């Protein structure tokens, strides 16, 4: 029997607002020390999802921008917590580059870490993470594929329910995740 909490979740986003809504849904289940790994080609909606996540945490979404040239942005809730570290790994070649921008488990343990182009530093990602793959499905439509790893598996059922509530076109693919 398959445990649905371990299942990969797939949906379609029909707009920027729906992509942001997925981010808000994810925000509801994040906590300090979490890593959200974003994977997707240019223009797939990674930064839009981060804007939604920030908004869901009470951070002004207008302050969120792609960290392409600075490699890392930090967003702080007006009351101080939570802190979101938004990392663009596109130009990172490996662990040394990651460490140069503060990729240290002690520092990261107090923040919610969101990594764009996470597949470029896959070896440095923690075992406990939520992986979100965004893809171009049609002109104004994005595919969203969410896979939980480690502790995220325990939150996946609730996250799936929240995303379905926010999304009009979604589907589950049942199956164990290794």
Keyword list:
8 strands; disordered C terminus; alpha/beta; globular; Rossmann fold; 5 helices; single chain
Compact summary:
This protein has 178 residues and is of the alpha/beta class. It has helices at residues 16-27, 46-56, 95-100, 105-108, 156-166, and strands at residues 8-13, 35-40, 72-76, 83-88, 111-116, 129-138, 141-149, 169-173.
How would you describe the overall organization of this protein?
This protein has an 8-stranded mixed sheet with strand order 3-4-5-2-6-7-1-8. 25% of the residues lie in helices and 30% in strands. Residues 168-178 have low confidence and may be disordered. α1 (16-27) packs antiparallel against α5. The chain is built from 5 helices and 8 strands; from the N terminus they run βαβαββααβββαβ.
Structural class: alpha/beta
Low-confidence stretches: 168-178
Number of structurally distinct domains: 1
Write the element-wise H/E pattern from the N-terminal end onward: EHEHEEHHEEEHE
Mean pLDDT over all positions: 80
The gross shape turns out to be globular
Chain-wise SSE layout:
Elements: E1 8-13, H1 16-27, E2 35-40, H2 46-56, E3 72-76, E4 83-88, H3 95-100, H4 105-108, E5 111-116, E6 129-138, E7 141-149, H5 156-166, E8 169-173
Parallel strand pairs: 2-5, 2-6, 4-5
Antiparallel strand pairs: 1-7, 1-8, 3-4, 6-7
Helix pairs in contact: 1-2, 1-5
């Amino acid at each position: 029997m398959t445990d649905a909490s371990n299942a990969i979740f797939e949906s379609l986003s029909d707009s920027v607002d729906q992509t942001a809504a997925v981010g808000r849904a994810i925000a509801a289940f994040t906590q300090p020390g979490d890593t959200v790994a974003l994977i997707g080609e240019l223009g797939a909606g990674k930064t839009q999802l981060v804007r939604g996540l920030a908004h869901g945490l009470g951070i002004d979404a207008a302050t969120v921008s792609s960290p392409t040239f600075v490699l890392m942005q930090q967003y702080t809730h007006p009351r101080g917590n939570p802190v979101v570290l938004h990392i663009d790994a596109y130009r990172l070649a490996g662990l040394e580059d990651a460490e140069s921008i503060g990729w240290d488990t002690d520092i990261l343990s107090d923040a919610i870490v969101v990594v764009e182009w996470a597949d470029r530093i896959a070896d440095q990602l923690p075992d406990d993470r939520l992986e979100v793959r965004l893809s171009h499905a049609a002109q104004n439509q994005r595919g969203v594929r969410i896979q939980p790893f480690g502790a995220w598996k325990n939150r996946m059922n609730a996250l799936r329910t929240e995303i379905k509530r926010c999304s009009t076109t979604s589907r589950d693919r049942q199956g164990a995740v290794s």
